[in-house]
């Protein structure tokens, strides 16, 4: 089997020649190690062997999102303004929203040596901000998706893997407007109000999902955001309220196109796995082992492996910090537990990827171990 055939067979629940192995964001994100930009961590020489290993030896899953073009009637610029600037070696983006008689601002920061964006200040600070945000016209969220980039990435990839369409769910778009503390309080104490915020995003997101699924049918999707309602942040009944129905509407469009919806949810899964299944998930990642999570891969495989393809369950902290001989035992156990017995399919995969400028010899050795165990070669 080539790498594309192996991944498609895994998603379809058919027999494969070996378990697939994937490095998640490495080989998934669109990066350029030749870009000299000082904020591009991937131009560090230490990254090149790892990027090449992913390209040459892993079952690649390119993560791509559709281009979102504002609809002609979208009045977003009447309400939002944006300013980018650099200061003390960091990039900042200041967003300002004026609506409902209020002025709201957010601030994000990106540092040179870390490939992540920190939200320094969240847009919504209190319930009055939330209520004002709800006064925005729905047309502000009207976009026309363009799948050309998705199809182009797939064509370039050829038989080395597949493309995965990446999308937030409505909860993700709502929750990230507030700090984690403000979000959890609002979600637990103002259920009806917070549900209105989710629904504000859901209408446009459902429409975009249906359009993209129709124009790029049969693909794997990753839906991220449900973890905002996992324990310990919210109790399981609120996971059901804020995730299941909204995400199920997205999944139905994906299913209707012959695609596969993969739910992305870090952390504790024990009490929400039935809800994830009820949302219609065809696949699940990253199934983190205890103590980060609270279920074993073997138990998830036994109880839900016939219904969902499982992606995981290697912790990124183990890849970066665990001695290679010890890591080999951990990775071998994941490969065994994810592939043994009856099940729809398994992909050996980490929970995330390094986001610093330097890849250490330990990190590189542990990634090589994943490939060797899954494929028998380097």
CATH class of the largest domain: Alpha Beta
Query: How would you write the strand order of the largest sheet?
Result: 1-14-13-12-11-10-9-2
Radius of gyration: 21 Å
Uncertain residue segments: none
User: Which outline best applies?
Assistant: globular
Strand content: 15-25%
Question: What is the rounded distance between the termini?
Answer: 17 Å
Structural domains: how many: 2
How do the SSEs run, as a string of H and E? HEHEEEEEEHEHEHHHEHEHEHEHHEH
Please state the structural category: alpha/beta
Helix content: 25-40%
The CATH architecture of the largest domain: Alpha-Beta Barrel
- The CATH topology of the largest domain: TIM Barrel
Describe the protein.
The protein is an alpha/beta fold and 378 residues long. The chain folds into two domains: 3-73 and 137-375, TIM Barrel; 76-123, no CATH class. The chain is 40% helix and 22% strand. The protein is built from 13 helices and 14 strands. It has helices at 3-12, 48-57, 127-133, 148-157, 170-175, 180-189, 191-215, 236-256, 273-278, 297-304, 316-321, 324-339, 361-375; strands at 20-21, 60-64, 67-70, 80-87, 90-99, 102-111, 117-121, 143-146, 161-168, 220-224, 260-265, 283-286, 309-314, 346-350. A hairpin with a 2-residue loop joins strand 4 and strand 5. Helix 6 (180-189) packs across helix 7. The two termini are 17 Å apart. The mean pLDDT is 97.
